[in-house]
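Ops channel
N.P.: pipeline sanity check, posting one input/output pair.
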């Protein structure tokens, strides 16, 4: 006798398909096979301004890991007071540029593309031998907002207010570095104008108290950035991709905002967009958080809408273990976008917000064009490959030991020591 048994249907996988992450994209003639980018990061492993030799292997592993585009380290332009600590990467000097050429050649030999990021610390420059640890430095108004334990938001004097000669010299330094990037074989250059560094100090009214053409109204505060972009564009020509990184937050103040309203943000963005930039890299601490009241769009979404330029979103993509195992909670995009401060948003909503579904839904509706995966790709050289193949359970979470893991960075071996790098999972 045959006994009938009940067969239960398999649980449906409600995760959104990841296809949108793997659509091609063209950036001023640069063809990218997908939308995933490893953004610039400051590892602090560049003694004397020269990247440690292990970086060649670090970039090789990520070049073959499936990302559509890689960025080099945040590297200072050739200006006397651009660097901070002595382990900040330089984008000048024989030894530093020779190392970068090796990295560029390695990335290209492994079928990938790489952008160089250009940087100036301005008023955040750290000089331990100076009476004031932030001196000597230059900034728009000789002011800097340091981090404080009691969250006071008071600027301090930290350097010298820039003269027109200083401004012209820094513009020239950025343009020189952009041309150097092109000559080294980089596939584009990005101007770092975020996180409280020099260009951001001009954009932010708290550190820009100037009364000349570079201060006051938002469009005036954007003049310095626009002039840098325009001169870089003049030097490198029309067909070399130029990007700019912007953020609302600062390394010393996560609550800070360049613009409190979309209208103010549009005034800041217009000169930048008109100066010849190809894409705006929008750094946000958490990509899922809405930027302004009344809309669930994030910073990259608003920037794209107001500037008319392509954007990249960056901010904690793939850092949470729950990110990799998320299944739909049934919440709407609007409900999730309200963020942690909304009493109606419970823990399930936060899992959803951090998940791939949230990211892909925003990408599919056109909020941004590229997705930066920083710490996730430190922990997983082949993050894009694993995501594309649905192997979420193989992804490692980023942690304090990620930078010394042999599968991610060759344990930062001293120069001349045998490499401990492994291609496991690459």
């Amino acid at each position: 006798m045959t006994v009938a048994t009940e067969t239960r249907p398999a649980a449906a996988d409600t995760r959104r398909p990841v296809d949108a992450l793997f659509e091609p994209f063209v950036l001023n003639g640069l063809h990218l096979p997908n939308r995933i980018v490893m953004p610039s990061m400051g590892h602090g492993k560049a003694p004397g301004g020269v990247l440690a030799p292990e970086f060649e292997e670090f970039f090789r592993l990520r070049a073959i890991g499936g990302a559509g585009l890689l960025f080099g380290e945040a590297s200072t332009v050739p200006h006397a007071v651009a660097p901070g600590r002595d382990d900040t990467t330089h984008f000048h000097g024989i030894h530093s540029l020779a190392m970068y050429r090796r990295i560029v050649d390695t990335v290209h030999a492994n079928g990938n593309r790489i952008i160089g990021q250009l940087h100036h610390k301005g008023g955040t420059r750290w000089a331990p031998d100076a009476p004031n640890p932030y001196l000597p430095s230059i900034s728009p108004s000789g002011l800097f907002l340091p981090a404080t334990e009691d969250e006071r938001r008071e600027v301090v004097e930290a350097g010298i207010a820039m003269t027109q000669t200083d401004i012209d010299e820094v513009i020239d330094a950025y343009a020189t570095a952009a041309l150097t990037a092109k000559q080294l074989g980089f596939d584009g250059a990005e101007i770092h104008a975020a996180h409280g560094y020099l260009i951001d100090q001009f954009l932010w009214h708290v550190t820009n108290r100037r009364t000349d053409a570079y201060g006051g109204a938002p469009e005036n505060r954007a003049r310095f950035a626009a002039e840098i972009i325009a001169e870089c564009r003049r030097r490198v020509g029309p067909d070399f991709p130029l990007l700019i990184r912007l953020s609302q937050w600062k390394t010393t103040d996560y609550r800070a905002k360049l613009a409190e309203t979309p209208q103010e943000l549009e005034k800041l963005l217009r000169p930048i967009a008109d100066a010849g930039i190809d894409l705006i890299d929008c750094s946000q601490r958490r990509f899922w958080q809405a930027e302004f009241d009344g809309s669930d769009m994030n910073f990259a979404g608003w920037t794209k809408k107001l500037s008319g330029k392509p954007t990249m979103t960056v901010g904690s993509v793939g850092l949470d273990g729950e990110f990799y195992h998320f299944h739909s909670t049934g919440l709407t995009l609007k409900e999730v976008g309200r963020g942690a401060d909304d009493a109606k948003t419970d823990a399930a909503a936060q899992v959803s917000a951090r998940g791939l579904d949230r990211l892909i839904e925003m990408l599919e509706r056109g909020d941004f064009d590229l997705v930066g995966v920083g710490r996730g790709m430190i922990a997983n050289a082949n993050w894009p490959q694993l995501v594309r193949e649905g192997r979420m359970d193989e992804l490692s979470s980023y942690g304090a030991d990620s930078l010394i893991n042999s599968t991610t960075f060759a344990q930062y071996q001293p120069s001349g020591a045998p490499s401990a790098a492994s291609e496991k999972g690459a």
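N.P.: looks fine end to end. Confidence is low (pLDDT under 50) at residues 1-14, 321-354, 406-426.
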